Amino acid sequence: MKLASETFFNNSAFSFSIFPYTFKSNESIHLHYHEFFELGYVMNGTGYHLYMDNIYPIKQGDVLLIEPGKLHGYQSDKTDPLYVCNVLFQLPFLKDIADIQRNLSCFSNPGFAPLLGDRENINERLALTGLEHLEISLLIKKMMNEYQGKEAEYQLLIKAKFIELFTLLRRSTRSHEVDVRSTEVKWMEEVCSYINMYYNDPLSLDKMSKVAGMSKSNFTSKFKQTIGKTFVEYRNEIRIKASCDLLRETDMKIINIANEVGFDDISHFIRTFKQLTRVTPSEYRKKHSQVWLN
């Protein structure tokens, strides 16, 4: 179902609207779309946001970003009302903002991505922390009061607060991205610790992806991005380092050393060893081994 823009914008010279909506328990707004931008801010309660082919749980402090033409809907929780404030605006309003604040590059494009930074998944909600929620909710209430009161220069004040709103959201997005990167680094460090401890186990990419709770493609990408090398490269380096210790400090047969550090194919072990050390295991032992007494 398409919602008509005329229903929400009664002033063609000021294509902006803001209003609250309270969902009763287990109430829904069916899938619909519209030709204007929408920012839905969850002031209180819990529920679900239906966006295209996905359903996302939402709660207090969540920011929902909907671009024109995107099919979406809402559903409140079965036992909990949902209070959402909707900020609606059209392209001419964004152009007015750009004229006011041209030094803010985030307003040079009408889409949401430049407003909040380079976001790959525009349908993904932004969850604000307690202090962020308090700051944003107060700002939205001020915008709502200006819009409802329509006192002198209210349009200019709304535009100023709109700039402040998206500046704060963009700042929050960057902060969350830093937190995510920090968490990813710590998690990958834990993965590396696991590999260091269990390098002689059959550590496949499939197994480590499951240990990390990621898809193989996501794990591969995050591991390389965080550690600077692929999972296989890192695992093999740990294994070859351990084999070097055994070659220097024991008289174990090379085939047994290969099995001990996690290689079940002697040819693969020798090939990998030479690739990393520039010599074969036998040459390494001859050069570095201790004198073994019978």
List keywords for this structure.
Jelly Rolls, alpha+beta, Arc Repressor Mutant, subunit A, 294 residues, 8 strands, 8-stranded antiparallel β-sheet
Q: What does this molecule look like?
A:
It is a single chain. By secondary structure, this protein is α+β, with helices and mostly antiparallel strands. The protein has two domains: 176 residues, Regulatory protein AraC (Jelly Rolls, Sandwich), CATH 2.60.120; 97 residues, Orthogonal Bundle (Arc Repressor Mutant, subunit A), CATH 1.10.10.60. 49% of the residues lie in helices and 18% in strands. It has ten helices and eight strands. Strands 1, 2, 3, 4, 5, 6, 7 and 8 form an eight-stranded antiparallel sheet that branches. Strand 3 and strand 4 form a beta hairpin. Helix 3 runs antiparallel to helix 4 and helix 5 packs across helix 6. The longest helix is centred in the middle third of the chain and has 44 residues. It is elongated. The relative contact order is 0.09. About 7% of the residues have low confidence. It comes from Fictibacillus fluitans.
CATH class of the largest domain: Mainly Beta
Tertiary shape: elongated
- The stretches of 5 or more residues where confidence is low (pLDDT under 50) are 103-123
Largest sheet: 8 strands, antiparallel
How would you state the average pLDDT, rounded? Answer: 83
Number of helices: 10
List SSEs in N-to-C order: EEEEEEEHHEHHHHHHHH
Number of domains: 2
**Using only CA atoms, what is the Rg?**
29 Å
Task: Identify the CATH architecture of the largest domain.
Answer: Sandwich
Computed structural class: alpha+beta
Give the percentage of residues in beta strands.
Answer: 15-25%
> Cα distance, first to last residue?
87 Å
Q: CATH homologous superfamily of the largest domain, by name?
A: Regulatory protein AraC
The overall strand count is 8
How is the CATH topology of the largest domain named? Jelly Rolls
What is the helix fraction of residues, given as a range? 40-55%
Keywords: DNA-binding, Transcription, Transcription regulation
Pfam families: AraC_binding, HTH_18
InterPro entries: AraC-bd, Homeodomain-like_sf, HTH-like, HTH_AraC, HTH_AraC-typ_CS, RmlC-like_jellyroll, Tscrpt_reg_AraC-type_HTH
Protein name: AraC family transcriptional regulator
